[in-house]
Specification:
Number of domains: 4
CATH architecture of the largest domain: 3-Layer(aba) Sandwich
CATH superfamily of the largest domain: Glycogen Phosphorylase B
Structural class: alpha/beta
Strand content: 15-25%
CATH class of the largest domain: Alpha Beta
Shape: globular
Helix content: 25-40%
Number of helices: 29
Number of strands: 30
CATH topology of the largest domain: Rossmann fold
Largest sheet: 10 strands, mixed
C-alpha cells in the first residue's frame, strides 16, 4: 500500500498568531513566561505533548484558539512575551556587542553528536548533549557568533521502560519533523542537500535549521528518498547500530557538516570539536583549503590546526572513540587520497603509538587542533597524563591540554519560583532586562533574600518533586500489573518534611549508584532514624548495552519494592529525562555524587541542584574538586589512593554514612522554637548559591572559550590566511624536522657546588649547537624546579635565555635569575622550536634537553 501525507497547520487568529513563531524557536525553553503561555492554553495537553509546543499547537482544537483570542488576560500575557522576545532578538547591548575584540569576522562552528536543548527536540542522550545544548543557549544569551552542527535522528532519545523486576528495557519513539521546531534549509527556493563520499558510495544529506534565540543549530539528515535503506538508516538512531554505522554517522557529521556549512554559504573561522565524534571534519577542512588556496597538505594543515578547538570529555582511554583501521580505510581512504598523503600517514594521525591496534578519534583531534582542553581542572590533569605519549620528552605538566570547567545554563535549570525570588532581590537593578549569571556582584546579595521566602520556595519545589514521583510511580506500577493496593500506596511515598537526598545520572558503573547500599543495616538506621529520618530519590538510565548498569538499577528497584525497611522511603523514578531532572534538581535538599575519582570528567547535575539551593554531598571529583572541601557542602573522603576497589567502596561508603548521620541530618533538623526550617541549613544554602552560581554556569564557560580559544584561533587564522604565510610556516616546520637531529647543548655554567644566599643572582651561560637553524627559529629555556621521582623535573618556572653571540659552531645563551625559594634547586636546559605565527610550537613536538 502506498501512503501519502500532507500537513495541516493550525489556523491561529491574528492577535495570537505569535504562538506559532514562539513554538518554532527554542528560546521558549528557558523563558518561563513563554512556557506559561502554552500551559494556559491547555495544561493537560501540554504535558501529554511532552512540552513540545509545535506538536502541542497542532493538537489544540480550533475552538480553543478562538476562545483565547478573546481572552484579554491571555492576549495581554502573550503581548508581554512577544515584546520580551523581540527585545531579546534586537538588543544592541549584548555582552558580545560590548566586549568583542577587533577580530575580523569571527564565527565559531560548534560540532557535537548530540544536543539537549529541550524535550521538544529529543536528539540527546546524556551529559554531553546537555552541555552542548547549554553551550548553544549561552551563546545566544551572550550574542556570541557561534553556530551548532549536529545530526537529526529519527530516533534521537531512548525511553527507559522497567519491568516488574526492575530490569531496564528500551523504547525508541520516532521523531517527526512536522511536529518539531525545525525547518529545512533552502536556497533559491530549493532544499539544500550535500553529497558525502562514503566508501564506494555517495550519500545525500539534507539540512534542518533549529532557531535557538539569537543563534542557530544545523542538523544533517540522511533519511531521504534518494538514498538507499542502509544510507537512510545512518541518522536513524543516536549512537545506534554497529561499529560500521557509527563511523558512517561520524563521517556524515564531520565531513558532511563542513560541506553543509559551505553549501549554505557559511564560512566559520574557528571550528570547535565537542568530543572526538566529529574529528573527521579536520580532513574535509584540509581538502577544502588545499583546493581553495592551491596549498599542499602540510600547508593547509597549518591553517586547520591553528583554527581548531577540541574538547575531550572522557577520562579513560577505553571510553574514547576507537575504530578498527580496516573499517577506517573503507570509509576514509578516499579522503587520504584527496589530501595527497599515503594511507600509513593518514593512519598515523589517529594512532597513539606506531604499534597501536586501533584508530582513535581523540588522537586525531589532539594532533590536528592547537587548542585542546578537558572539562574541569582535575580532568585536564588526568588528560595530560593520559595522552602524554603524544608528546614524548615533554613534562606532563606542559602537555598542551588545558582545562575549561563546564557549567550549566542557569535560566534553563533554576525553578521559575526561585527565579522570581532572584529577580525580586538580586536582579532588580538590571536595566536592560538580561542578567549575566556569571556576575559575582549579583550573587553576593543572596543574604538579602529573607530566610522564610527562600524556604517557602524550596518547600513548594520539594512538594512538586514528591507529587511528580508519586504520579510517575503510580503509572509505572499500573502498567507493570501490580495490584490496586500497591498502586494506592504509591500515593504516599516520601514525606515533604523529611531530609531528601537525590541521585540521578547515567548508570555507568564508575558512578557507583549502589554505593549507598553497601551496608544495608547502616542505611536502615539512617533512613528510619526516629528524630532525623532521611529519604532518597534515584533516577537514571543505563546504556542499552551496559548489562552491569542495568543490574545496578534492578538491585535498587528491588530494594525499594521488596524491603520493608526502605519501601516508600527510597524510590527509583523511571525514564530519567530533562523534565525529571528539573524536578529533581529543583526539589531535593542534598545532591549525592559518588563516582570513582577521577573518572567523573566534570559532572553538571550537582551544579543544577546547587543553583536551586540543594547542598552537595560529593566525592572530590570533576567540578566539585574545585569547590570542596568547603563550609557549604560535604566532601566524601579526599584524594586518597586505595589498594583495591573493595577498600575504596568500604572507606567511602563509611565516610558517606558518617557525614549524613553526624553532619547533614543534624544541620537539616536544627529547628528551634517550633520553626519550620533550620537557620543553619538556610545559611548553608545561601553560601552554596553565592559561591557556586557565578562560577559554574555556561555564560562564564563560553566567555572563557571565547577569550582563551576562539579569539586566538581566529587571529592565527587571519595571519595564516595571508598570502604566503601558511607556506612559510610549513617550510619552517619542515626545516625544524630535517635539522633537529643536529641541535644540542654542549655546555652550561655555572653548576654551583656551594650554597648561595637568598637574593643573590645566579648567572647561567650555555653553548648551543643549532646546525642549519638560526636563533630566530628556536627558543632556549632554563627549566627550574624540583627533581621528580622519575628522574625528571617538576616545573616551577621556565626562563627564556638570550642569545649573546656565536663561538665557532655554537651560539652563546645567557640569563641571570634570583632563586625564589631556599633549599635545593634543580634545573635543566632545553631547546624548543619557535615561530611567532602559530599558537603552540609544541604540537607536533620537537624538544631537546641537555644530555
Amino acid at each position: 500500500m502506498k501512503i501519502h501525507s500532507f500537513n495541516v497547520q493550525p489556523n491561529l487568529p491574528e492577535n495570537i498568531k505569535f504562538l506559532e513563531e514562539l513554538a518554532n524557536d527554542m528560546w521558549f525553553t528557558w523563558n518561563w513566561q513563554a512556557i506559561l503561555l502554552f500551559v494556559q492554553v491547555d495544561p493537560k495537553l501540554w504535558t501529554s505533548a511532552k512540552r513540545n509546543p509545535k506538536w502541542f499547537l497542532g493538537c489544540v482544537p480550533q475552538k480553543r484558539f478562538e476562545e483565547l483570542s478573546k481572552d484579554e488576560k491571555f492576549v495581554h500575557d502573550l503581548n508581554q512575551v512577544k515584546e520580551a522576545y523581540y527585545n531579546y532578538k534586537n538588543n544592541q547591548h549584548t555582552w558580545y556587542k560590548e566586549h568583542r575584540h577587533e577580530n575580523g569576522n569571527l564565527l565559531t562552528a560548534y560540532f557535537s553528536m548530540e544536543y539537549g536543548i529541550g524535550e521538544g527536540l529529543p536528539i540527546y542522550s546524556g551529559g554531553l548533549g546537555m552541555l552542548a545544548g547549554d553551550h548553544m543557549k549561552s551563546a545566544s544569551d551572550l550574542d556570541m557568533p557561534i553556530i551548532g552542527v549536529g545530526l537529526f535522528y529519527k530516533q534521537g532519545y531512548v525511553q527507559q521502560v522497567l519491568n516488574r523486576e526492575g530490569w531496564q528495557n528500551e523504547e525508541y519513539p520516532d521523531n517527526d519533523w512536522a511536529h518539531m521546531p525545525v525547518e529545512r534549509v533552502t536556497k533559491d527556493g530549493k532544499e539544500i542537500t550535500v553529497d558525502i563520499p562514503l566508501g564506494n558510495e555517495t550519500v545525500k544529506a539534507c539540512i534542518w535549521r533549529v532557531p535557538v534565540g539569537r543563534t542557530s543549530l544545523y542538523l544533517l539528515d540522511t533519511n531521504l528518498q534518494e538514498n538507499t535503506p542502509a544510507q537512510r538508516a545512518i541518522t536513524e538512531k543516536l549512537y545506534g547500530g554497529d561499529r560500521e554505522n557509527r563511523i558512517r554517522q561520524e563521517v556524515v557529521l564531520g565531513i558532511g557538516g563542513v560541506k553543509a556549512l559551505s553549501a549554505m554559504g557559511i564560512r566559520p573561522t574557528v571550528y570547535h570539536i565537542n568530543e572526538g565524534h566529529s574529528a573527521f571534519l579536520l580532513f574535509q577542512r584540509i581538502i577544502d583549503i588545499m583546493k581553495e588556496k592551491n596549498l599542499s597538505f602540510a600547508q593547509a594543515r597549518e591553517i586547520v590546526w591553528a583554527t581548531s578547538v577540541f574538547t575531550t570529555h572522557t577520562p579513560v582511554i577505553a571510553g574514547n572513540e576507537h575504530f578498527d583501521p580496516a573499517l577506517v580505510r573503507k570509509y576514509m581512504d578516499f579522503y587520504a587520497r584527496e589530501m595527497g598523503i599515503s594511507w600509513d600517514e593518514f593512519l598515523a594521525l589517529g594512532k597513539e603509538k606506531a604499534d597501536s591496534a586501533t584508530y582513535c578519534m581523540t588522537v586525531v583531534a589532539l594532533r590536528l587542533s592547537a587548542f585542546c582542553n578537558g572539562v574541569a581542572k582535575l580532568h585536564g590533569k588526568v588528560s595530560r597524563e593520559m595522552w602524554h605519549n603524544l608528546w614524548p620528552g615533554l613534562p606532563v605538566s606542559e602537555v598542551p591540554i588545558t582545562s575549561i570547567t563546564n557549567g550549566i545554563h542557569s535560566a534553563s535549570w533554576i525553578s521559575h519560583e526561585l527565579n522570581e525570588l532572584y529577580r525580586k532581590y538580586l536582579f532588580n537593578n538590571n536595566q536592560r532586562g538580561e542578567v549575566d549569571p556569571s556576575d559575582e556582584k549579583i550573587w553576593a546579595k543572596i543574604s538579602d533574600i529573607p530566610d522564610a521566602e527562600l524556604w517557602n520556595v524550596h518547600t513548594i519545589r520539594k512538594n512538586k518533586l514528591i507529587d511528580m514521583v508519586r504520579g510517575r510511580l503510580k503509572r509505572q506500577l499500573t502498567r507493570q500489573g501490580f495490584d490496586v493496593m500497591s498502586v494506592k500506596k504509591a500515593s504516599k511515598v516520601l514525606r515533604p518534611d523529611t531530609l531528601t537526598i537525590g541521585f540521578a545520572r547515567r548508570f555507568a558503573t564508575y558512578k557507583r549508584a549502589t554505593l549507598l547500599f553497601k551496608d544495608l543495616n547502616r542505611l536502615d538506621k539512617i533512613v528510619n532514624n526516629p528524630q532525623r529520618p532521611v529519604q532518597f530519590v534515584f533516577a537514571g538510565k543505563a546504556h542499552p548495552a551496559d548489562t552491569a548498569g542495568k543490574e545496578f538499577i534492578k538491585m535498587i528497584v528491588g530494594l525499594t519494592q521488596n524491603d520493608p525497611r526502605f519501601k516508600g522511603k527510597i524510590v527509583f523514578v523511571e525514564d530519567y529525562n530533562m523534565n525529571t531532572a528539573r524536578y529533581m534538581v529543583q526539589g531535593v535538599d542534598v545532591w549525592l555524587n559518588n563516582p570513582i575519582r577521577p573518572m567523573e570528567a566534570s559532572g553538571t547535575s550537582g551544579m543544577k541542584a546547587a543553583l536551586n539551593g540543594a547542598l552537595a554531598l560529593s566525592i572530590l571529583d570533576g567540578w566539585w574538586d574545585e569547590v570542596g572541601p568547603c563550609d557549604f557542602g560535604w566532601s566524601i573522603g579526599g584524594a586518597e589512593n586505595y589498594k583495591s576497589d573493595a577498600e575504596r567502596d568500604t572507606v567511602e561508603s563509611e565516610a558517606m554514612y558518617n557525614l549524613i548521620e553526624q553532619d547533614i541530618a543534624p544541620a537539616y533538623y536544627a529547628k528551634e522554637n517550633g520553626s519550620e526550617y533550620s537557620l543553619p541549613w538556610l545559611s548553608l544554602m545561601k553560601e552554596s548559591i553565592k559561591h557556586i552560581a557565578p562560577v559554574f554556569n555556561t555564560n562564564r564557560m563560553v566567555k572563557e572559550y571565547y577569550e582563551r580559544f576562539y579569539v586566538p584561533a581566529n587571529n592565527y587564522g587571519l595571519i595564516l590566511n595571508e598570502p604566503g604565510k601558511a607556506e612559510a610556516v610549513a617550510a619552517w616546520r619542515r626545516r625544524i624536522a630535517e635539522n633537529w637531529y643536529r641541535v644540542s647543548v654542549t655546555d652550561i655554567t655555572p653548576q654551583p657546588e656551594t650554597a648561595i644566599l637568598m637574593g643573590d643572582k645566579v648567572h647561567f651561560k650555555a653553548r648551543v649547537v643549532l646546525g642549519a637553524l638560526t636563533p630566530e627559529e628556536i627558543q632556549v629555556e632554563l627549566y627550574l624546579g624540583q627533581r621528580g621521582t622519575l628522574g625528571d623535573i617538576v616545573k616551577e618556572d621556565a626562563i627564556d635565555m638570550t642569545c649573546t653571540g656565536k663561538d665557532g659552531d655554537a651560539y652563546l645563551y645567557e640569563v641571570s635569575m634570583s632563586p625564589l625559594n631556599s633549599g635545593r634547586q634543580d634545573y635543566a636546559l632545553r631547546i624548543l622550536p619557535f615561530n611567532n605565527d602559530i599558537p603552540n610550537v609544541l604540537t607536533p613536538l620537537f624538544i631537546r634537553w641537555e644530555e
